[in-house]
Amino acid sequence: MIPLATGDASAAQVNGVALAGPGEVLSPEVLRQRACTELLRQAAIRAGLLDADDPRPVEGAISEAATTAIEVLLDRRLAVPEPDEDSCRRHHAAHAARYAVGERLKLRHILFAVTPGVDLEALRSRAEACLIDLRARRRDEAIGADDRFAATARELSNCPSGGAGGALGWLNAAECAPEFAREVFGQAVVGVLPRLVRSRFGLHVVEVLEREAGIPPPFEQVRTAVAQSLRQQAFATALRQYLQVLAGEARLQGVALDQAGTPLVQ
């Protein structure tokens, strides 16, 4: 594989198909996502599920026919076992807080929004620098002595809540984007979270001011949700393995897909 200079996506290809247009600057994460999608699109063509003249992606967007073909391909190729009762019970016992009913958090955040044309690497760097600064200050401050978080939110946040110091008030999981809720609910941490929270809106620096614990329901009431969670985990594992096989068979240029945690098609 030919290595790719940081941010330069112009040379990235999968079996000769370019992953980016001229002048596009992409983060390694976005580049890997596009490569995974292209591997699956080409696999669908080889499987006869998609016409060979299917249009190549434009700025990462594939055709509707390709999306449908990839779904059929994955249904055929991925073996996703049905979770048994014992597995579901063990998962529930280890993660009961995830299924708690009535948990509420008092939150505030600083949003670094992903907008068209934004330099994702620069955005991530700014967000990480903000997170490090706030966590370092929190260790040195007495509570309420110098509300740096609120001042930073007013200065940097791309959310309307920035004007209120980033305050979101009391929220339950259903009031948040699912990917955001998965990162902040069902835990015990109070304070500035140690990692950035990623959502469809961008990157968030999040502070949990207070937690009101929910009530974990008995296993029988949440078995369906537990089983679905295990199915999703099994699907993700099977998809990663399938993508590794496809990557091993492909001619890759300018993109690395052999790292653990390679992003999956979205």
What does this molecule look like?
Strands 3, 4, 5, 6 and 7 form a five-stranded antiparallel sheet that branches. This protein has a three-stranded antiparallel sheet with strand order 2-1-8, with helices on one face. Helix 1 crosses helix 2 (64-77). With 266 residues, the protein is of the alpha+beta class. Residues 1-7 and 259-266 have low confidence and may be disordered. A hairpin with a 2-residue loop joins strand 1 (13-14) and strand 2. The chain is flat. It has seven helices and eight strands. The longest helix is centred in the C-terminal third of the chain and has 31 residues, at 219-249.
Number of strands: 8
Write down the overall geometry: flat
Distance between the termini: 24 Å
Please give the count of helices: 7
Radius of gyration: 21 Å
- Give the H and E element order: EEHHHEHHEHEEEHE
Oligomer: single chain
Describe the SSE topology.
Elements: E1 13-14, E2 17-18, H1 28-46, H2 64-77, H3 85-94, E3 104-113, H4 120-140, H5 148-156, E4 167-171, H6 178-184, E5 191-192, E6 197-199, E7 202-212, H7 219-249, E8 252-253
Antiparallel strand pairs: 1-2, 1-8, 3-4, 3-7, 5-7, 6-7
